[in-house]
Specification:
about 100 residues, mainly alpha, Rossmann fold, two-stranded antiparallel sheet, 3 helices
Length: about 100
Amino acid sequence: MKRSKNLNLNIRRGELIALVGENGAGKSTLVKLLLRFYDVQNGSIKIGGIDVKDMDPETLRSRIGILFQDYATYELSVRENVMMGWPYGEADDEK
């Protein structure tokens, strides 16, 4: 498998994206780098021009929603399931 040495990815504010590819292509690694579960060895990851290494990991992670291919279902209401994805927020049924 060929490994990429350079990757440039620009995700605009509010944009929803899907990372699709074969097993081992690096999708999960890219997400883990974005969320600072790993730090990049070369180059940088920036959000709004700020290097993620300069951001508080909890704050960074609270602003990004991730749904992995291997998902789990819970025997909860729709409201409770949605709130599991936003543990820092208050319940807002209107939203």
